[in-house]
Write a structure and sequence with these properties.
Number of helices of chain A: 13
Order of helices and strands of chain B: EHEHEHHEHHEHHEEHEEEEHEHEEHH
Largest interface: A-B, 42 and 48 residues
Number of strands of chain B: 14
Largest sheet of chain B: 6 strands, antiparallel
Oligomer: heterodimer
Number of helices of chain B: 13
Order of helices and strands of chain A: EHEHHEHEHEEHEHEEHEHHHEEHEEEHE
Shape of chain B: globular
Strand content of chain B: 15-25%
Structural class of chain A: alpha/beta
Distance between the termini of chain A: 44 Å
Helix content of chain A: 40-55%
Chain lengths: 432, 323
C-alpha cells in the first residue's frame, strides 16, 4: 500500500524548486496583519499619503481618452513616452541616459529576475552586501547562484572587503558575475554608500572587470541631503541600474525599470517578452499621466517628510527604550533601521514572543544567504504612524528584556537551537 | 432545511495562517453539502456580527488559544449560539496538554511520562539544577513542547543533554509553561473521532511518515515533504487497539462531536496518546480530512450532520454546553 504526499507532482518539479519550503516565520506573520499588532516588519510604502482622488481622476481620464491603446498589449521594452519621463527621474541623481536603453518591468523585482536570467548559471558567484535585500537573495537562489556577502558599515559597502572578496575568488579561479548593491538607504541595513566609497567601488569594478547591479528604489527619499550621484552616473558600461516607482509613487502599479548598456538591453527585452509579453500598458499609462500632469516632485517631498517624521520617532524611541548592548543604524533616508542584539540572542527564535506582545519585525537571517544574521533584525518605520511606532518599540523592549532574562536563566548553551532547518525560505511580498 | 453557518477562522494565535486555510476548506465543504456558510475572523466585531446575523450554528476552525481553550466556546454559550465541537469545559482541559495527560493517565490510558513546569520555576530554583532532575527522572531523548498550542510550533526533540536549555528557551517563546516528555520512538498516528449522535467512533487511523523523520511545521504544511497512509499500515490487532484507545481518550476528556487524537505506536505494538485536539486542522494537508476521505465520507456532509446535531442539542437543552 503506498501512501500519499498530497503532491502528485513531486517527481516532476525542477531541481531549483528543491528546498523551497513553507516557512514557519511566514506563517507566524499571518498574525502581523491583525490591527492589534504593531508591524515594524513589512516595507509597505504609505500610499494613503497619495492624492487618491486626483489619481482616480487622471486614471479615468486616461482610460476615456487613451483606453484603446492603454488596454491593449504593449511593447516588450515599455511605453516610449514613459521611458523618456524615466530619464527625467534619473537625471535627479546625475544619470544621463537615453530612453532607448531603458526597459520597463513589473516592478524592479522583475528587473532583477531578468538580470538573473540573462547572467546567471547554476553555481555562479554573485557578490552582495552583508546583509542584502531578501527579494534579491530569493531571485539569485532561484537562479541557483551562490551569493558571497561583502561587509558593510555605517558608510555602506566596505571597499577593502570588496577587494578582498574579489581577490579571494580570483585566486580560487571563480568568476564573479556581478556585484549587487543598494547604495542608497539600504534595505535592510538603512545605511548609504558614501561619496568617496562610490568612487572606490567603481575603481575596483574597473580594476577587476566587475559588473555592478545598482538597485535604487529609495534614492529620492533622503531626509537630510540632496540625492547622491548614482553609480550609473559614474560609469555607463559597468553599471546596470534598477529603478522603481513603488516608493516614489505607488507599489501597487508594479512599475519599475532597468537601465542597461545597449547590448544587455536587447537581451532584457527578449527575456521580458518571453516572461510577460509586455509589462501592463494600463499601469504604464497611469504612471505616464501622473508624471506628466501631476506635481510628482512635490509628492516625493510629502513622502520624504512623512518618512522623516517616522524615522525620527523610531530613533528617538530606540534611544530611550532599548536596553544596553543593543545597537542600530541611523538611516538618512528610506524605510529601515537595522538592529543588532547582544551576543547569545536569536531574533528569529524571539518572533513568537514578539507576536505575543503584538509587535512584529523581520529577523536578520533572511537577509543573508549563509545563515548569519542571527542577532540582527530589521525594523521598518514606513507604514505605522509615529505613535504606533513608539508603542511598537516599547513592546519590543519588553520582549527583549524577557528574552534576555530567559537566556540568563538557561545560560550560555541556550542560544544554539535550530529554529528551522531546511532550504530557502521564500519571503512573502509583505516582508520584502 | 437550509442552515446558515458561520465558520470562524483566523484569530490572533500563531496558527492564524493554518486556521484561515482550515476555515476556507470547511466553508467550501459545507457549501457543497448545501449549507449556507460564511467565514469570519474572531475579532472585536464578532459579537456584533453574531447579533446581526444570528447564524444557526458556528463551526470553529480557529486553532490556538481562543478556538481551543474553551474561551470562545464559553462566549458562544453565553450568547446562545450553537457550535460544533467539544464543550467549553472539555476544551479547556484538552487544550492544556499537562491537564489532558493527567486525565488520560487517571483513566488508565497510556501517555508518555512527563513534567510540566512554568519558566518561573527555572528562574527561582536554578535552571541547571531543575533540568538535571528532569534528566534523572525522564532520561533521554526528550520532547520539549509548549504546554498549549499546536502545529508543532516551539516543539523540539532533544537527544543530548546539552541541547535541552536551547530547546527550553525555544519552547518558552511560545508560552509560559513547558511540557517535557519522555520521547517515545514510534510511528506517528492520528485518529479522528466523530460522534454524529450514536456515540463516538474512530475513523481510519492516518499514519504520518515525515521525509526527514520529524513532523514539524514545514513537514506538516509543505505538500510533498511528508507521506501519509490512510488507513495506517498497522496490524489488524494493533489498529483495533489504536482505535479503541482513541475513543477512550475522547470519552475520558468528555469531548463531543469531533476530535483528533495523536498517538505513537512503538515497534512492539505499544500505543501512547500524545495529545488530543478539539479543533483539528481542516487544511489540504490536515489529518482529519484524510481520515474522513479514507472512511468514504464527505467532509461537508459530516460537518453538516454535526451542525444539525449542535442545533438540536441547543434546542433541547439550552445550557447543554455551558461550562
Amino acid at each position: 500500500m503506498s501512501g500519499t504526499t498530497l503532491d502528485d507532482y513531486t517527481d516532476r518539479y525542477a531541481q531549483r524548486m528543491r528546498g523551497m519550503a513553507v516557512s514557519e516565520i511566514r506563517a507566524l506573520f499571518a498574525v502581523a496583519s491583525r490591527p492589534e499588532v504593531v508591524s515594524l516588519a513589512g516595507g509597505m510604502p504609505f500610499v494613503s499619503a497619495l492624492p487618491l482622488d486626483e489619481i482616480a481622476e487622471l486614471t479615468a481620464k486616461a482610460i476615456r481618452e487613451k483606453g484603446a491603446v492603454a488596454l491593449q498589449y504593449g511593447s516588450g521594452q515599455g511605453d516610449p513616452r514613459l521611458r523618456e519621463l524615466i530619464c527625467e527621474v534619473m537625471a535627479l541623481e546625475g544619470i544621463d541616459a537615453s530612453a532607448e536603453d531603458i526597459v520597463v518591468t513589473v516592478g524592479s523585482q522583475q528587473g532583477l529576475d531578468l538580470i538573473s536570467r540573462i547572467f546567471l548559471d547554476p553555481g555562479d558567484v554573485v557578490l552582495a552586501e552583508a546583509p542584502s535585500y531578501v527579494g534579491a537573495l530569493g531571485t539569485f537562489a532561484a537562479a541557483q547562484a551562490e551569493v558571497v556577502h561583502v561587509a558593510m558599515d555605517a558608510d555602506g559597502l566596505q571597499p577593502e572587503a570588496l577587494r578582498a572578496a574579489l581577490e579571494k575568488l580570483r585566486v580560487e579561479g571563480r568568476r564573479v558575475k556581478f556585484l549587487y548593491t543598494v547604495p542608497n538607504f539600504h534595505n535592510p541595513a538603512g545605511v548609504t554608500l558614501s561619496e568617496a566609497r562610490r568612487d572606490e567601488v567603481m575603481a575596483l569594478a574597473e580594476e577587476h572587470d566587475l559588473l555592478v547591479i545598482e538597485d535604487n528604489p529609495y534614492g529620492l527619499l533622503g531626509f537630510e541631503d540632496a540625492p547622491g550621484r548614482a553609480l550609473r552616473a559614474r560609469s555607463h558600461d559597468r553599471v546596470i541600474y534598477l529603478g522603481s516607482f513603488s516608493k516614489t509613487f505607488a507599489a501597487g502599479l508594479r512599475t519599475g525599470w532597468v537601465l542597461a548598456p545597449h547590448a544587455v538591453r536587447e537581451k532584457l527585452v527578449l527575456v521580458n517578452e518571453a516572461q510577460v509579453l509586455s509589462p501592463s500598458l494600463f499601469t504604464q499609462t497611469v504612471v505616464t499621466e501622473y508624471l506628466e500632469h501631476h506635481p510628482w516632485r512635490d509628492q516625493v517631498k510629502v513622502f520624504r517628510e512623512l518618512y522623516r517624521e517616522r524615522r525620527d520617532a523610531t530613533l528617538d524611541a530606540l534611544s530611550t527604550m532599548m536596553p544596553p548592548g543593543v545597537t542600530w543604524t541611523h538611516p538618512r533616508g528610506g524605510f529601515y533601521v537595522w538592529m543588532t542584539l547582544p551576543p547569545g540572542m536569536d531574533s528569529k527564535a524571539m518572533i513568537p514572543r514578539a507576536l505575543t506582545h503584538k509587535v512584529a519585525y523581520v529577523p536578520g537571517v533572511g537577509f543573508y544567504s549563509d545563515g548569519s544574521g542571527q542577532r540582527e533584525l530589521r525594523l521598518s518605520y514606513c507604514y505605522p504612524e509615529p505613535a504606533r511606532i513608539r508603542e511598537g518599540i516599547r513592546r519590543l523592549a519588553a520582549v527583549l528584556s524577557e528574552e534576555t532574562e530567559l537566556r540568563q536563566v538557561f545560560g550560555a548553551r541556550s542560544s544554539t537551537v535550530e529554529f528551522s532547518r531546511r532550504g530557502v525560505e521564500t519571503p512573502g511580498p509583505e516582508l520584502t | 432545511m437550509s442552515r446558515r453557518v458561520l465558520v470562524l477562522a483566523g484569530g490572533l494565535s500563531y496558527e492564524r495562517d493554518v486556521s484561515l486555510k482550515s476555515g476556507r476548506r470547511a466553508a467550501d465543504a459545507l457549501r457543497r453539502a448545501g449549507v449556507e456558510a460564511t467565514i469570519r475572523d474572531a475579532d472585536s466585531g464578532l459579537l456584533a456580527a453574531l447579533d446581526a446575523e444570528r447564524p444557526d450554528a458556528v463551526v470553529i476552525a480557529l486553532h490556538g488559544a481562543i478556538g481551543e481553550d474553551g474561551a470562545l466556546r464559553g462566549v458562544l454559550d453565553l450568547v446562545g449560539v450553537p457550535y460544533v465541537g467539544p464543550s467549553a469545559q472539555a476544551s479547556r482541559v484538552a487544550w492544556d496538554k499537562p491537564s489532558a495527560k493527567a486525565e488520560l493517565r487517571e483513566a488508565g490510558i497510556p501517555t508518555p511520562d512527563w513534567v510540566a513546569l512554568p519558566h518561573e520555576t527555572f528562574r527561582e530554583l536554578g535552571a541547571q539544577a531543575v533540568l538535571d532532575r528532569i534528566l534523572d527522572r525522564l532520561g533521554l531523548p526528550l520532547m520539549v513542547k509548549p504546554a498549549q498550542g499546536g502545529s508543532g510550533l516551539g516543539a523540539h526533540a532533544v537527544y543530548v543533554a546539552e541541547e535541552l536549555p536551547a530547546a527550553m528557551v525555544g519552547c518558552f517563546g511560545y508560552g509560559d509553561t513547558a511540557l517535557i516528555e519522555r520521547f517515545v520512538d514510534g510511528t506517528d498516528i492520528a485518529v479522528s473521532v466523530v460522534d454524529t449522535g450514536n456515540g463516538p467512533i474512530a475513523l481510519p487511523a492516518v499514519e504520518i511518515v515525515p521525509a526527514n523523520g520529524v513532523y514539524d511545521y514545514e513537514a506538516r504544511y509543505t505538500a510533498g515533504t511528508t507521506t501519509w497512509h490512510a488507513p495506517a499500515r498497522l496490524a489488524p490487532a494493533v489498529a483495533q487497539r489504536v482505535a479503541s484507545i482513541a475513543v477512550a481518550a475522547h470519552r475520558a476528556l468528555g469531548l463531543g462531536d469531533l476530535s483528533r487524537v495523536d498517538l505513537l505506536v512503538t515497534r512492539d505494538g505499544g500505543v501512547h496518546v500524545l495529545e488530543v485536539n478539539v479543533s483539528p486542522g481542516l487544511t489540504e494537508t490536515s489529518l482529519l480530512p484524510m481520515a474522513v476521505h479514507a472512511a468514504g465520507l464527505d467532509l461537508g456532509v459530516l460537518l453538516r450532520d454535526l451542525v444539525d446535531l449542535a442545533i438540536t442539542r441547543a434546542g433541547s437543552t439550552p445550557a447543554a454546553h455551558s461550562a
